[in-house]
Amino acid sequence: MTDAMVFLRGALAAFGLTWITAALAAHQMWIRLVGGAFLLMLGVRTLLSRPAESAARASGAGPGSAVFLVAGVVLGSAAWWLVLSGLVARLRSRFDVRGLAWVNRVSGVLITGFGVLAVLSALGGAATGARVQ
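User: That's the sequence. What structure does it adopt?
Assistant: Structure tokens below.
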């Protein structure tokens, strides 16, 4: 590959990232509104959901699929997921349906709160005419 081709590919990549960044910044209010509305919907659904009586069965999942999962995810994210799922597996037997309902309520309130903050953040920037950063 010639130096000109390397330069051209690098320039296209840089301008492409610049364009994506500018587009995201220009539409940040709408992204926050849609994201906040989604969090509100998710929070309310979680808050009102009834916990399952028993754990769902995984079909066709074996040790190989866990290897592919870890291989496909960034190491830090995979480690965090494994820690959380290990804690849930250890604590699952201590929660009955009533306890899981409280977990849903607390999670729903937190998710709904984040949705409200996202929407208010977007509307606050739009109301003052300030660019939301």
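The helical segments are 3-26, 28-48, 63-72, 75-91, 97-128.
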